[in-house]
């Protein structure tokens, strides 16, 4: 799988998720087998105004490459300047958001609002393509109605303007994340353009990713919410693509990833901020495990890395002990 000059190790892509896909999470995703990681959505206006908070979103590490950085905005000249900043930061790929349906983004004319204005969208894409030499992609939605016409129209415009790939989340602007994603539109888009198409939407487990590829013919799969707390989904998709059987994720893998995420967050954000964030985010990794609600309750007040690690270790020990007890009972009952 190639996007322009960038070759990916496999066909899995981490979706850009605002407030979530920061550097620590991307590192975990990459270590878990993700082919391409994507930044949070970054404001073009914030970049050219040299906002410290916005510029921080460009932080990266060599071991997460290739990295796609996504920006949003509505003014072609501002977007072109922001694109140059992204390229200078060392990003492997530049991505433009044409799919965000959050009101505060849409009211500025950015995100999915641009899908109603193909001429402005074309001017923006043209300006950005002229500004950078790195591979350039766009992420879109169905558009503002279920027909998918706007998605197909914008993708053709993008292809003609030199865009290297398009990712599509086939829900309308009004759907948000509700209802079902229309995978038939992914298939229609794949047939209408010659550049790579990345499918996104309703991939809950590794089998869904394989099914999407079979049904739509898309070149890669973009996974967002299903990867939160479950980064192993990327390697599992690759395993299925090789025709091999998925092996269960054992407790050691799960808890090792939790510790790595905690460590990376403390180094990146500082202990106080990271621990505040971990009060909710460590719970991502224990979904479906026994006593998970008890663990999530215990971490709500963590204020130090040491305390967080002790709670993680205690929870792991309790799970291992309960497993041992169950095995003993089963042995007696045989």
Kindly estimate the percentage of residues that lie in beta strands according to DSSP. Answer: 5-15%
What CATH architecture of the largest domain would you give?
Alpha-Beta Barrel
Number of individual domains: 2
Rounded to an integer in angstroms, the radius of gyration calculated over CA atoms is 21 Å
Could you tell me the mean pLDDT? Answer: 94
How is the biggest beta sheet arranged?
A: 8 strands, parallel
Coarse structural class: alpha/beta
The side-by-side strand order for the widest beta sheet comes to 3-10-9-8-7-6-5-4
Shape: globular
Tally of helical segments: 14
Note the gap between the termini. 51 Å
CATH fold name of the largest domain: TIM Barrel
Notes on the structure:
The protein has 334 residues and is an alpha/beta fold. The protein has 2 domains: 2-241, TIM Barrel (Alpha-Beta Barrel), CATH 3.20.20.70; 251-333, Non-ribosomal Peptide Synthetase Peptidyl Carrier Protein, Chain A (Orthogonal Bundle), CATH 1.10.1200. The chain is built from 14 helices and 10 strands. The strands form 2 sheets. Strands 3-10-9-8-7-6-5-4 form an 8-stranded parallel β-sheet. β7 (136-143), α7 and β8 form a beta-alpha-beta unit. It is globular. Residues 324-334 have low confidence and may be disordered.
């Amino acid at each position: 799988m190639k996007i322009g000059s960038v070759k990916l190790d496999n066909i899995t892509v981490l979706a850009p998720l605002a407030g979530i896909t920061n550097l620590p999470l991307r590192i975990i995703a990459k270590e878990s087998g993700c082919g391409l990681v994507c930044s949070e959505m970054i404001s073009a206006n914030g970049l050219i105004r040299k906002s410290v908070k916005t510029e921080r979103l460009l932080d990266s590490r060599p071991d997460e490459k290739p990295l796609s950085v996504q920006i949003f905005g509505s003014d072609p000249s501002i977007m072109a300047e922001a694109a140059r900043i992204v390229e200078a930061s060392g990003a492997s790929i530049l991505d433009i958001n044409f799919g965000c349906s959050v009101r505060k983004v849409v009211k500025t004319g950015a995100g999915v609002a641009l899908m109603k204005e193909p001429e402005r969208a074309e001017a923006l894409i043209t300006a950005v393509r002229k500004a950078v030499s790195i591979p350039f992609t766009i992420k879109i939605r169905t558009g503002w109605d279920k027909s998918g016409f706007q998605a197909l129209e914008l993708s053709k415009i993008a292809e003609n303007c030199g865009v290297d790939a398009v990712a599509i989340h086939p829900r309308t602007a009004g759907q948000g994340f509700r209802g079902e994603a229309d995978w038939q539109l992914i298939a229609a888009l794949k047939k209408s353009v010659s550049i790579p198409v990345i499918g996104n939407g309703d991939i809950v487990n590794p089998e869904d990713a394989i099914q999407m590829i079979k049904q739509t013919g898309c070149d890669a799969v973009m996974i967002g919410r299903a990867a939160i707390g479950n980064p192993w989904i990327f390697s599992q998709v690759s395993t299925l693509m090789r025709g091999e059987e998925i092996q269960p994720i054992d407790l050691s893998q799960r808890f090792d990833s939790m510790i790595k995420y905690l460590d990376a967050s403390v180094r990146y954000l500082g202990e106080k901020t990271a621990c505040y964030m971990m009060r909710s985010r460590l719970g991502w990794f224990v979904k479906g495990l026994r006593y998970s609600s008890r663990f999530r309750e215990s971490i709500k007040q963590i204020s130090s890395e040491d305390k967080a690690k002790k709670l993680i270790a205690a929870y792991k020990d309790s799970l291992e002990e309960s497993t041992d007890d169950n095995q003993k009972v089963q042995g007696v009952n045989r």
